[in-house]
Design goal:
71% of the residues lie in helices and 0% in strands. It has helices at residues 6-19, 31-43, 48-79, 83-114.
């Protein structure tokens, strides 16, 4: 072997399950979903803990994306009856705060994963079980 323990390698992949969502910030469309999805699909059979972290990260990223898209759709639809114009500041705030919270939760999850702990993201819909 190369001197790296199996648990250390597994832990690295667990951390990458979370950190791979940051690919979105280098310009990859839906990279926040594609990063965790790719790692989870490739490594889920290697360890139950990688499977768990991958699903958790993937579910959170899908949930956050759907929340932001849903808010945008509701705001645009309501603009046709003029009340949506009042919601525009809410949409702008969500577009600014959403990615910031995403990064904060990703960092928390990655730190927990590096310590061998599980992390449950808040407000996550469990699409992948």
């Amino acid at each position: 072997m190369n001197g790296i323990s199996t648990s250390g390698t597994s832990r690295t992949w667990e951390v990458l399950c979370h950190l791979s969502a940051l690919v979105m910030f280098v310009g990859v469309p839906f990279g926040n979903i594609l990063g965790p999805l790719l790692i989870w699909l490739l490594k889920r059979s290697d360890s139950p803990s990688i499977d768990e972290h991958g699903k958790e990260s993937l579910n959170f990223q899908i949930s956050l994306t759907l929340y932001l898209i849903g808010l945008a759709i509701v705001t645009v639809a309501l603009m046709f009856v003029l009340i949506g114009v009042l919601l525009l500041p809410v949409l702008i705030a969500a577009v600014m705060v959403g990615p910031l919270l995403d990064v904060i939760f990703i960092i928390i999850a990655a730190v927990k994963a590096s310590g061998g702990e599980s992390y449950r993201y808040p407000l996550t819909i469990r699409f992948v079980t």
